[in-house]
Inverse folding.
């Protein structure tokens, strides 16, 4: 009887996995159709992005010439960022039922004795900065990520007094 229960449990897990893969494939297909449009510059600039946040269309109103080039550039950036934020929200809403279903399922660590909870060890993905190139925010992020080589010595200083220091040197 125990073996029959085990086989039934395996079949149920496999069926659940198969159904989940179908749901993921369907959500993925629907996601590819997501788009979002946002406007800026007083409604003179309209930008549409796809599900990946890539600009797929840009439209200017007839009176866009009332804006300076700098204002148009800023409006383009603002509209693209707003549209990307909106399409990301749509994607999150589309995937939320899958997340809810997954949360109700047992974790692998609950099914296999001694297996650590791998999900808790997954790194978090930080959102990308929306700051423009060479902005104070971007430059400060670069400085933080750069290792400090405070004890590094230039080549000239390193080689100073190193004459005849090769493999045949008596120090070897």
């Amino acid at each position: 009887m125990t073996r029959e229960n085990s086989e039934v449990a395996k079949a149920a897990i496999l069926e659940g996995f198969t159904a989940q893969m179908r749901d993921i494939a369907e959500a993925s297909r629907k996601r590819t159709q997501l788009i979002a449009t946002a406007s800026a510059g007083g409604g003179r600039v309209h930008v549409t992005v796809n599900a990946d946040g890539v600009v797929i269309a840009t439209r200017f109103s007839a009176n866009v010439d009332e804006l300076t080039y700098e204002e148009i550039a800023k409006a383009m950036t603002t509209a693209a960022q707003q549209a990307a934020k909106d399409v990301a929200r749509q994607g999150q809403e589309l995937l939320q039922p899958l997340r809810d279903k997954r949360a109700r399922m047992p974790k692998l660590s609950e099914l296999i004795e001694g297996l650590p909870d791998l999900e808790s060890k997954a790194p978090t993905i930080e959102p990308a900065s929306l700051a423009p190139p060479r902005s104070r925010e971007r430059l400060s992020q670069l400085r933080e990520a750069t290792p400090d080589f405070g004890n590094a010595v230039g080549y000239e200083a390193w080689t100073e007094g190193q004459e005849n220091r090769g493999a045949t040197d008596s120090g070897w």
About this structure: The first strand starts at residue 35 and ends at 40. The domain at 18-107 is CATH 3.30.1310.10 (Ybab; Chain: A;). The beta strands are 35-40, 45-50, 55-60.
